[in-house]
Task: inverse folding
């Protein structure tokens, strides 16, 4: 017997966190009965229906690394008709992005149909590092650099970068090129950090995710993660 949300995630339908939301919202049926309790356990014979879709519990797990281009949203569909990142991956499986990059943010994005794997990568307690390169407005002062390094409170929570440095500055164009590594996963967090010190972000690219990078991949290109890479990422899960 396994918890329902874990079974949904393992089926590749969505992440465990999203599965929990669907259960609480009354979108999940087990053997034709509505289930809204997160502690519910099911076995291999139970028929699970999520949002009207009967789960296939023998799905082949797939893991992709994409160099996301500008102009795509991190979703599997969009009611406004915008381009979505799953359009870039040639697969018949129902994959989805792990976390989000903004519409105008580029760089490293992982996509999978393994919900437990996605949950490991997104769970804040695992502290997985993400490195970004940003082009920001203005030239940072010594005081502002110190402030970012010491940590800035965003939406009531202090964000302390693992690494931060100014890579270069262009006094003629009044712009700076900076590198920042964080473990945060909140939406727009990098943009909010620099907006809070009046240096809006013009361009943002995720360069690294844990030990992964996008070297060798042109914008819009992708590759399968190796078995070793998947194992190393799963090993980042901390015991709780």
Result:
């Amino acid at each position: 017997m396994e918890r329902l949300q874990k079974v949904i995630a393992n089926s590749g339908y969505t992440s465990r966190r999203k599965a929990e939301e669907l259960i609480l919202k009354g979108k999940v049926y087990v053997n034709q009965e509505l289930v809204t309790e997160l502690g519910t356990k099911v076995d291999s014979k139970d028929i699970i229906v999520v949002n009207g879709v009967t789960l296939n519990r023998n799905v082949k797990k797939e893991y992709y690394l994409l160099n996301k281009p500008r102009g795509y949203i991190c979703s599997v569909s969009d009611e406004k008709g915008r381009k979505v990142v799953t359009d870039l991956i040639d697969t018949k499986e129902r994959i989805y992005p792990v976390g989000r990059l903004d519409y105008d943010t580029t760089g490293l994005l992982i996509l999978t149909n393994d919900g437990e794997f996605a949950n490991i990568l997104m769970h804040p307690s695992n502290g997985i590092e993400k490195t970004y390169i940003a082009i920001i407005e203005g030239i940072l002062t010594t005081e502002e650099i110190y402030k970012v390094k010491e940590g800035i409170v965003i939406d009531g929570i202090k964000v302390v970068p693992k690494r931060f440095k100014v890579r270069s500055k262009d006094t003629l164009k009044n712009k700076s090129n900076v590198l920042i590594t964080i473990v945060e996963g909140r939406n727009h967090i990098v943009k909010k950090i620099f907006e809070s010190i009046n240096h809006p972000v013009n361009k943002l690219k995720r360069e690294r995710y844990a030990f992964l990078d996008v070297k060798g991949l042109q914008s819009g290109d992708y590759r399968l993660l190796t078995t070793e890479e998947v194992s190393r990422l799963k090993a980042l899960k901390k015991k709780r």
Q: What stands out?
A: Residues 129-209 form a domain with the Alpha-Beta Plaits fold (CATH 3.30.70.1560). The mean pLDDT is 93. The two ends are 21 Å apart (CA to CA). The helical segments are 4-10, 16-24, 115-122, 142-150, 189-195, 227-234.
